[in-house]
Amino acid sequence: MKKGIIAGFVVCSLMFSIQMPLAVSAERADGTTIEIAADDVLPQVTADAAVVLEADTGKVVYQRNMDKKMFPASTTKIMTLIVALEKGNLDDVVTISKNAANTEGSTLWLEEGEKVKLIDLLYGMMLVSGNDATVAVAEHIAGSVPAFARMMTDKAKEIGAVHTSFVNSSGLPDDRHFTTAHDMALIAAYGYKNPMFAKIVSTQEKKMAWTKNADKAPLRNENRMLWLYDGANGVKTGYTDAAGRCLVSAAKRDGVQLIAVVLDSTYMWNDSIALLDYGFGHVHAKKLYAKGDVVKNVHVVSGREGNVDVKAAEEVNIPVTNGEGAKFTTEIEVPDSVQAGFNKGDVLGRVIVKYEGKEVKSADLIAAKAVEKKSFFADLYSRIVEWAKKIF
């Protein structure tokens, strides 16, 4: 009896192990090993943790250990930029403290007492990863680095990056300073909602008079993806001994914005290209409206004409994942009637696209032509005629 029970347990265990995806060890060029799932579709990727995210919907297109606790290194500065843009005044002049000037690691060579515009510090920290700039920014906005880091963590939680904790603005190593690949992708995707964020992180070079050797060379973005990958538009590199090589990269094609994250990667450029290629191979843009498409015809009150077409002011595309069902809905926000006295191109409403109930795209709806108001007597006559129709 006991033998039968044992034999049955062994058989069940074998069946269970066959059915469940197994993790396998992969040796990297540096001699370290990482665990990847046996069914990982990108086994050539060398990152310990990785993810590809579609920014508008938040859909995960690919992931490896995306919720594993990791060190972010200088990809931290993505959140530093977000908080600075939301809480700071870009034209503010920041006085560099001794604490900022003496910050260790990558630097802009800021000097104590130097005065620099906040916007220039943001470019400096994102293009060449100036740790001293992040301290100056944090002190200017929050009074201290710890206070600013609390703002960063709070913002992360608000975005949905709930497995992230920041204790500094630079990404210097600290056991209490951690994130996940998924959280970093969510944070970067949120950043792209701000046009200034998108502008800064996609800048290849920036000449600023206050930087050292400004007369010889501009600041050059350390993110090589801006040159290597078609459509690349961000975002930030990172490295420490504890974190390994890290890169949050991004690219936009036909209105589809992808975020790729690799943490502790041996070949972060190759990994990121492979991830983005995979993403664009599985997500494509579907056109809902072309610029100028007529979306609705609206009644005009007291106008020389009784109706007007409203048109899409810009092209509206949605990011569709291969094999995905209909999770998008469209809402047209235009009144049933509008008062006359508007010009061609005036905004009369908007179209909203939602993904699983969350707004992901929108565009203005504009008048296809101008409609003037009727004269007083013509308007009065029309009103009498309408009144008569209702009575008789």
Give structural notes.
- The protein is an alpha+beta fold and 392 residues long.
- It has two domains: 33-284, Beta-lactamase (3-Layer(aba) Sandwich), CATH 3.40.710; 290-391, D-Ala-D-Ala carboxypeptidase, C-terminal domain (Peptidoglycan synthesis regulatory factor (PBP3), Domain 2, Sandwich), CATH 2.60.410.10.
- 31% of the residues lie in helices and 29% in strands.
- The chain has eleven helices and 19 strands.
- The strands form six sheets. Strands 16-18-19-14-13-17 form a six-stranded mixed sheet, with no helix packed on it. Strands 4-3-11-10-9 form a five-stranded antiparallel sheet, with helices on both faces. Strands 1-2 form a two-stranded antiparallel sheet.
- A hairpin with a 2-residue loop joins β18 and β19 (358-367).
- 41% of the residues are buried.
Strand and helix layout:
Elements lengths: L1 H18 L3 E5 L5 E5 L11 E6 L5 E5 L12 H11 L5 E3 L2 H4 L13 E3 H10 L3 H12 L2 H15 L21 H11 L3 H7 L3 E2 L12 E2 L4 H4 L3 E9 L3 E10 L2 E10 L2 H15 E7 L4 E8 L5 E6 L3 E6 L6 E6 L3 E3 L7 E9 L2 E10 L8 H16 L1
Parallel strand pairs: 13-17
Antiparallel strand pairs: 1-2, 3-4, 3-11, 5-6, 7-8, 9-10, 10-11, 12-15, 13-14, 14-19, 16-18, 18-19
Helix pairs in contact: 2-5, 2-6, 4-5, 5-6
